[in-house]
Amino acid sequence: MADAAEKLSVSMPHKLASAARKRAGRRGLSSFVARAVARELEREALGEFLDELDKTLGPVPDAELKRVRREWPKR
């Protein structure tokens, strides 16, 4: 069963709102914005988790970062 919906009022720049409406299309702006907010909350939680790992285990060594960047180049 889906969570109960809560109506919100948000403001954003006109160009951003227009692009969101265009992208959301028939799916609807509300579900589009809800998914975007959920993804942002997940990204923030992941950032907090990574910060916690750095505090607990220390930062990833530079040599390891270089190795990984060579194996996973930007696309």
Number of helices: 3
Order of helices and strands: HHH
Characterize the main sheet: none
Helix content: 55-70%
Question: What does this protein structure show overall?
Answer:
- The chain is mainly α and 75 residues long.
- The protein contains three helices and no strands.
- The radius of gyration is 19 Å and the shape is elongated.
- The mean pLDDT is 93.
Put the structure in a nutshell:
The protein is mainly α and 75 residues long.
Can you give keywords for this protein?
75 residues; mainly alpha; 3 helices; 67% helix
List the helices and strands and how they pair.
Blueprint: H1 14-24, H2 29-57, H3 62-71
